[in-house]
Amino acid sequence: MLKSLSVKINWYGWQEKPWDVLPYIDVFLFTSTFEAFGLVLVEAISRNIPIVSTDLLEIRDFLKEGINGEVAPADQVEIFKQKVLKVLKYDEETRSNIYKSNTSVIIENIRNFIQENIHD
Predict the structure, then answer these.
(1) E strands within the chain?
(2) How far is CA 85 from CA 6, 27, 40, 96, 98, in A?
(3) Which of 2, 27, 70, 98 has the fewest Cβ atoms within 10 angstroms?
(4) Is 91 strand, coil or helix?
(5) Segments forming the whole domain that contains residue 33
(6) What pLDDT sits at residue 5?
(7) What is the pLDDT of residue 1?
(8) pTM score over 0.85
(9) CB-based contacts of 46: which residues, under 8 Å, 6+ apart?
(10) Selection from 2, 5, 1, 3 nearest residue 88 by Cα
C-alpha cells in the first residue's frame, strides 16, 4: 500500500514562492515530532488544505480531526499513512466544509487569544 501511495505524491521540497504551489496541494503533511507549532500550519489552514499531522498538543487548537484534517501518533507510520489515505478520500462535501471549519477555528483562536492576553 505504501508503495502505491508514493506514486501519488509530488515532493515539491523548498519553494521560493510557496503560495504558487499551494493551489495544487491535496493534503498537507506535518510530520514533526518536536516542533509544537509551525507557521506553515497556519498557511495550510488559510488556504483550506486538509492536514495530516503528528499528535502534538498545540496542533489540537487548530486541527479538528475529521473536519479539517487528521491526527496520528508521531511514532506510528502505518497509522499516519492510513490517515493520509483517509484525507485523500474526502468527498467534495467534506472538502467544501473545510473552508467553513477553518474560518471558525481561526475566529475561535483569535477570540481566545484576545480573552487570555488582552481582555481585562
Answers:
(1) 28-30, 51-54, 69-72
(2) 11, 10, 21, 18, 17
(3) 2
(4) coil
(5) 2-117
(6) 60
(7) 43
(8) no
(9) 102, 106
(10) 5
All residues at 6 or more sequence positions from 3 whose CB lies less than 8 Å from its CB, including other chains: none
Give the chain's domain count.
1
**pLDDT for the residue numbered 77:** 93
Alpha-carbon gap, residue 36 to 54, rounded angstroms: 10
> Running along the chain, 120 residues long, what does each successive block of 10 average in pLDDT?
59 83 87 77 84 84 84 93 91 84 78 76
C-alpha cell read off for 106: 481561526
Beta carbons of 64 and 82 less than 8 angstroms apart: no
**Sheet with 51-54, edge to edge strand ranges:** 28-30, 51-54, 69-72
